[in-house]
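Researcher: I've got a protein sequence and the SMILES for zinc ion. Could you write out the 3D structure of the bound complex as structure tokens? I'd like something to compare against our soaking experiments later this week.
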Amino acid sequence: MLKTLLFITLLPLSASAQERVSVGVYHGRPVSRLTLSPHASGQVTAERALLKGKVTLTAAGGLVRCKDRKALDGRRSVSLSAYGGGVWLSGPGLPRRLHKGDITISARGDRLKVAAMVPVEIYLQSVVSYEARDLSRPEAFKAQAVAARTYALSKVQSHSREGFNLCDTPHCQFYAGFADINPVAARAVMQTDGEIINYKGKPASAFYHSACGGFTDGISAVWPYEDKPYLRSVQDGPAARPYCSPATGFSWKKKIAFADLERALRRGGWLRNGEKISSVSVRGHGRSGRPLKLAVNAGGRAVEIPTSDFYHAVGRTLGWTAMPGNLFELYSGKDYIMLDGKGAGHGVGMCQWGAEGMAGKGFRYWEILEHYYPGTVIEKMEKKKK
Ligand SMILES: [Zn+2]
Ligand SMILES: [Zn+2]
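Model: Sure. Here is the predicted complex with zinc ion in place.
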């Protein structure tokens, strides 16, 4: 039906094509040089000629340059087909990635852009391998597979102006190619083939995060403009022992110096140049126990910052380990704040460690998903009609 077709209609494919998505590889990174190394058992062609050894591509003035192979030099784009073991992509400052299938490398000015056509199920196997890398229970992997499939569906048009469906960063979902696919993730994707989370007949916004700390957060606390009834705060198991309590780093304490906080809040536009913080306090708590706002006293005025903005500002400037989550108690010291927190991530939607905990208690993946996305149903997308 329509939902499956969404994946397909965006792509210039023949009717016999498999369900594939195009992924922008190395999205957001400047790719000035790209080396293609056929895998030992790879059958790789570039512009229809077999590639036997390594080839390095660069870009200049909107054209692909290649010293190793004349036929590839001076084109706007190079088409690769990689079969068998596939082809490794690498370059200065870029992680090595294994790809298979059709890959297009094009020049934009002095940079290269890479777009790879990937079967949807392989894409999901890679995403789930990464996202569930700390988990072990198959039912938790299956819950993650259904959430990732649903999330991908909601993102599939977000890069259409750039010429591909999904990027390979957490913006869409982290995708690392064909290497390092965990067999448990691969099975979870196959066993939940085509299943997505629907709310009133439409795919849900399947947000997920690492560990909620005991209560998930409603989406309106994080993104005030989006109200989704199924993204509301739920209690994650018994108060004394939440489902996600086995998470590594479930309870945490972090100290942030005022000087560092000033840097983060200046960059976020909350503080003016030269304003010094004298204290920080919490203004109100939401249903999930998360502070609603933080009042920052600086330069003789009090600036009220929604907790999720504060969390993102700190994460972006000081790194995501400086303040792992947004459920915490706060103590304001002489020139620092001390945060005493639980859980990690934004807290909205499925709690990944909670899914692991529920799986350990015998819950099946659909029960896990119904718990974190109340009011939704799991439905199978119909296969496309021939
Ligand atoms: Zn993206
Ligand atoms: Zn949790």
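Model: Residues 138-155 form the longest helix (18 residues). The pocket of zinc ion (ligand 1) is lined by residues 158-159, 166-167, 171-172 (CB under 6 Å).
Researcher: Great, I'll pass this along to the crystallography team.
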